[in-house]
Write a structure and sequence with these properties.
By secondary structure, this protein is of the alpha/beta class. Helix content is about 40%, strand content about 20%. The chain has 7 helices and 7 strands. The chain is globular. About 40% of the residues are buried.
Length: about 210
């Protein structure tokens, strides 16, 4: 009983070894709601002074270095377009021989309001095509993910135009703050595991200053 409990405790300490941001590669998609995953890993790269290089083996932009506390950091932005994100993720995990549970994927979520984050150790795709592809290529849904709220579309907008649209000026200001919180959460996950980051950041709500 004690041994099983010990193994359970050890298995919950999930330390990401590859951080993936989901998005679409063309300039027309830059700074859209659907590309907030790209923006998140860009913020991680900026804080850790990691430069991006195109990796044709992965079909992705890839960066490698150290986080602010010296933790190993590998960052990935698939260039395969959202619906085929899993191809790039699988190529990178195969190359580095990483188990799926060491991959942290960051992406947009309409079910969360702007200013909210949600870290989970596993779960379904929830209708997100990038995550559907990731789950299909990794062969499991047991890997951590960090969802960034982009809010629901209004009644006058359809879902596609909402996710491919840009944030309002007020939201843009807020998302800049959100991305810094995302970086803090990821850096904590690198040091103390995803569950620790979940306990501190899942209840956080960043609001527009008026």
């Amino acid at each position: 009983m004690t041994e099983a409990t010990s193994q359970s405790t050890q298995s919950t300490l999930v330390i990401p070894q590859l951080i993936v941001g989901l998005g679409n590669p063309e300039p027309k998609y830059e700074k859209t709601r659907h590309n907030i995953g790209f923006d998140a890993v860009d913020a991680l790269a900026k804080r850790s002074q990691i430069s991006w290089n195109e990796n044709r083996r992965f079909q992705a932009l890839f960066g490698e270095g150290q986080a602010s506390r010296g933790d190993k950091l590998r960052l990935l932005k698939p260039l395969t377009y959202m619906n085929r994100s899993g191809q790039a993720i699988r190529a990178a995990t195969d190359w580095y021989k990483l188990p799926p549970e060491s991959v942290l994927i960051i992406y947009d979520d309409m079910d969360l309001p702007v200013g909210r984050l949600r870290l989970r150790l596993s779960g379904s795709a929830g209708g997100h095509n990038g995550m559907k592809s990731a789950i299909a290529h990794l062969g499991t849904q047991n890997f951590p993910r960090l969802r960034i709220g982009i809010g629901k579309s209004g009644t006058d907008k359809d879902t596609v135009s909402h996710v491919l649209g840009k944030f309002s000026p007020q939201e843009t200001q807020l998302m800049s703050e959100v991305l810094q919180v995302v970086v803090d959460a990821v850096e904590l996950a690198l040091r103390q595991g995803v569950e620790k980051a979940m306990s501190l950041y899942n209840s956080r709500s960043i609001e527009i200053n008026t």
